[in-house]
Amino acid sequence: MHGFGTHGVWTGFSTLTGEQAARIEQLGYGTIWLGGSAPTLAPVRAVLEATDEIRVATGITNIWNTEPAAIAGEFAALETDFPGRFYLGIGVGHREATQEYASPYQSMVAYLDVLDDAGVPADRRILAALGPKMLRLSADRALGAHPYLTTPAHTTYARDILGPDALLAPEHKIVLDTDPVTARAIGRPPVDTPYLHLANYVANLKRLGYTDSDIADGGSDALIDDLVAHGDKDTIRDQVDAHLAAGADHVAIQVLGAPESTHDITDVLEQLTAG
């Protein structure tokens, strides 16, 4: 329906090489999500240049360290050179990192107003959204929502708010390792720091029923297991695809613990798609 494919890859904009982007496309993933808060869209151009058809989205462009008029100009240039392939993921980040964080919802509305005036189509924008107000805004002023650090239960909740037509593309972390102790040792640190210390993510996890004890001390095993799929490829596929069963259109897979021999996430992605 939305053309993103059922599965994409979420990775940091500063770590993805052109060769890796091309390999992700060859493996059949539908979208590359460039994570982090790059102050310009230059990393997007590099990925688009390295690939042929795959969609590329920011996950996210932060409204606090970018000017919407400048981003609109960059969007227009990318649209001229790579028509139809780039989607602008936008988010408000979190209050702990941003002195100007007051009124994040109204600040997002104002940012979208500038994008409207500059001609960035609503159906080429995706909002980072966890709670009900931002989810509703995602349906009203954008193509849909890109929730981060969520579970299939949140996907069900988000779909109910978004309605049937908006794009819902959650991110989910994976560790391809059948030893749960090893997998949690890989998955826990990037969940704990920073996310279990950020108010918006903690509030969302509590909304889903997790307790203070789940969130404390690096996260309970149950919480980490819900947020970071691990096991063999079939077990991981089942957990990732639970988002699709819960109402997602697309899941952005973030690989943790790439092989020490190569440190290349595409080796894991290839194993995940094999057979």
UniProtKB/TrEMBL annotation:
InterPro entries: Bact_Lucif_Oxidored, Lucif-like_OxRdatse_MSMEG_4141, Luciferase-like_dom, Luciferase-like_sf. It comes from the Bacteria. Residues 18-152 form the Luciferase-like domain. NCBIfam families: F420_MSMEG_4141. This is F420-dependent oxidoreductase, MSMEG_4141 family. It comes from Williamsia maris.
